[in-house]
Amino acid sequence: MTDFLPEELWRDYSETRLLFTASNKQYCLTANKSGDNNWPWESDIKEIFIISAIHPRSNQSTDEEIVELEEKMNVRLNTLDLTYIRCTGKPAHDDWPEEESFMIFSATEKDIVSLCREFDQNAYFHWTKEFWAIKGVFTSQTTFTNWTLEEITQ
Q1: pTM given for the model
Q2: Burial 81-102 (b: 16+ CB within 10 A, else e)
Q3: What is the per-residue pLDDT across 21-57, written as a single tens digit (0 to 9) for each?
Q4: HSE, side-chain direction, 13 A CA sphere, residue 115
Q5: Cα 41 off chain centre by
Q6: What is residue 35's predicted lDDT score, i.e. its pLDDT?
Q7: Does residue 43 fall inside a structural domain?
Q8: In this structure, are residues 37 and 150 in contact, taking their beta carbons and an 8 Å threshold?
Q9: Were 65 and a residue from 61, 109, 150, 154 both cysteine, which residue would form a disulfide, CB within 3.0 to 4.6 Å?
């Protein structure tokens, strides 16, 4: 286990916004921002994990690799019988592309760490009504913060 990811990379994780659709509404979750913590899920959903399959160890994937890795993750999640939806990580800076990800509802943290290791992912997001966290997989880095959820209207 390495000690730390570079500060700039960790900051990029910390500034990622999450776009997703639930109950026919589009949302944007923003970390490090106080809000009403309007939990959009049924009361039996207590925690959610967000992981990506692409850009292993934060190295840019080709278009072909992206398709292959996302399909492989779909297969793994289905094999593990996990409930999930697709979501999009939107970076704070325009120099990094949006990243398609998986919002997983029925996993344990052990499952998520195992998947992250399998797909060589540096970190994952952990979301509850009380907090938003970024957790390192190959490092001991962890950041807990608050969050807000805004409905996107068009």
Answers
A1: 0.90
A2: ebebeebbbbeeeeeeeebbbb
A3: 998 999 999 988 776 668 889 888 999 999 999 887 8
A4: 30
A5: 16
A6: 67
A7: yes
A8: no
A9: 61
How many domains, the chain?
1
Domain-embedded: residue 110: yes
User: What is the radius of gyration, based on Cα positions, of the chain?
Assistant: 15
3-state secondary structure of 57: helix
How many other CB atoms are there within 10 angstroms of residue 42's CB atom?
8
Contact present, 32 and 145 (Cβ < 8 Å): yes
Per the domain annotation, does 2 fall within a domain? no
What 76-83 contacts at long range (C-beta under 8 Å, 24+ apart), as own/partner pairs, is 76/115, 76/118, 77/102, 77/104, 77/115, 80/107, 80/111, 81/106, 82/106, 82/107, 82/111
Tell me if residue 95 falls in helix, strand or coil: coil
Residue 94, domain extent: 7-152
Spatial contact of 65 and 142, defined as CB atoms under 8 Å apart = no
Start-to-end Cα distance in the chain: 44
